[in-house]
Write a structure and sequence with these properties.
PEX11, Peroxisomal biogenesis factor 11, membrane, about 0% strand, mainly alpha, transmembrane helix, single chain
Length: about 230
């Protein structure tokens, strides 16, 4: 009976659907990666042994490499999304242009990031890898900025829609609830983008943030992304 209860439990089925997706596995690895980044910094500051710190630095590095390899080829998805956003009609032009900018930013990031895989894996070392990685961070940062601006713009539009729905002659409770749900999604995405903003900004030297702070920021955005991926496979 206990075996059957485990085998046919809805949560187990949900978990299997979740880990069957690439994004689900990536978000799990990302959360662990940034937790290891935070923990290695924290343990170092607390004076723990170099061996203990090395363990978490190794986890961070190995999971980072694993995710980098998993991302190869994903740039096509974002370039395709950018093309679709350009062709999309009946959408607010500002929202459309911001969407195109976001997708091109992420596509450029993944393109240059893929060019560093052989160097990062130690298969073939080349001096240009550092330059490619820096360009990858610049494109990632650009994509995040477009996403943040898009989120703020969408939230402002959402406030106007909510205000109109509440002031309607016959207020629609269903419509207001729907807008509140969309607002919650936008707020979570904005929080995730702001957290992610810290990562390439720090790597490029635009913000002076320590590894502990960057690790926490990465954990926040990773958890939000993991929760979203989990809900999509419900």
């Amino acid at each position: 009976m206990a075996v059957d209860a485990f085998t046919y439990h809805p949560t187990v089925a949900h978990y299997l659907r979740f880990v069957a997706t690439t994004i689900g596995r990536d978000k799990c690895l990302r959360l662990i990666q940034y937790f290891a980044r935070f923990l290695s910094f924290y343990l170092y500051r607390k004076g723990h042994t170099s061996e203990t710190v090395r363990i978490f630095n190794t986890i961070k590095a190995q999971l980072g490499l694993t995710r980098k390899i998993m991302r190869v080829g994903k740039n096509v998805e974002h370039f395709k999304a950018a093309g679709e956003a350009v062709d999309k009609r009946g959408v607010d032009p500002i929202t459309r242009y911001l969407s195109v900018g976001r997708q091109l930013g992420y596509g450029g990031y993944l393109t240059f990031d893929a060019l560093t895989v052989l160097d990062a894996a130690g298969i073939y070392k080349y001096a240009a890898a550092k330059k490619f990685q820096r360009w990858a961070y610049k494109f990632w940062l650009a994509g995040i900025v477009f996403s943040i601006v898009s989120g703020i713009y969408s939230l402002n539009k959402m406030k106007e829609k909510t205000r109109r729905a509440e002031k309607a002659v016959v207020p629609s409770g269903t419509e207001v609830m729907k807008l509140e749900k969309e607002k919650k999604v936008l707020n979570l995405q904005l929080l995730s983008d702001i957290a992610d903003f810290c990562i390439p900004s720090s790597a490029l030297g635009y913000l002076n943030l320590d590894d502990g702070f960057v690790g926490l920021a990465g954990m926040v955005s990773s958890y939000i992304g993991l929760q979203g991926a989990w809900n999509k496979t419900a």
